[in-house]
Amino acid sequence: MTSVLDLLNSALHQAFAADERVYLIGEDLLDPYGGAFKVAKGLSSTYPGRVLSTPISEAAITGLAAGMALRGLRPVVEIMFGDFVTLAADQLVNHIAKFRWMYNDQVRVPLVLRTPMGGRRGYGPTHSQTIEKLFLGVPGLRVLAPCSVCVGDADAGSLLKEIILESEDPTLFIENKLLYLLPVGTDGDDFTTSLVSEANESPTYQMQLRGAPAASLTICTYGYMVELARQAVLKLGYEHEVFCNIIAPTQLSPVQCSPLLAAVEKSTRLLTVEEGTYSLGWGAEIIAQATEKLNRRLRAASRVAALDLPVPASGPLESAVLPSADAIIEAVLALHRFA
User: Alpha helix (H) ranges present in 88-173?
Assistant: First the structure.
């Protein structure tokens, strides 16, 4: 069965084959290791001059890639753990995202920075964070986060391949660690899944229990949290007779609200779910936009997210800090009691 890791690896191979300007830059990428999570496996053997294994310096890696992009190449950066994108923040925020505007639209920076985020593997507080919210809302920087959902040709690999080959602007591509080994498109008979993106947008998926009544609440989430949301929706439907639909965007920034607003206008309740910390996060922005644009048609809204704490190395403590399917169920039921 095909996994998300398989799709991402295949996407890199296809992008390398399609365009000789594509390079991969990062730490420990060469075969037989192929990167910490094996997304780069086989690339250096097939394209030995275009996979560059570097010293441990995220700022230098990203700065080098910026120069390559300005000179017409299409570099892909792999940062081994997303926690350390902070070390490349100056390059991303003050340079890469701004060059197009600083130079009067005469240059492009077609750079993709890929990195794994997330916990639940016991890696401790400096290797388990979900911190993409630090980069949301940066003008000129697109932030994407795939999930394991697949509708037709719209999947994690297709998304990665498209931005590598076609995007002319920089993209931060977030890969949750637990997504890598998940099989793709395994809803079985439980869910119906459709694509609700507008033209020229990254995929946005809508999921609902097959044969269920109209949803009374919309869950908006992304990445690995889509899996937890599906578990929660199943239990809510079968055990509580509360029916929800799920909206799962792959583009986090700039925010694309149209599909979500259409769903919430019908369901009237909204719950956002993210693995990042609760305060000042993606979910707060989604709820703010829904409140502004739907006004009184939004009856109630709430958030599920990690506690505002570092992620512990201890398994039980890590589980207590990070969001769970049970937390989603509890939040959904509370919203129904409230409104």
Answer: 89, 99-102, 156-166
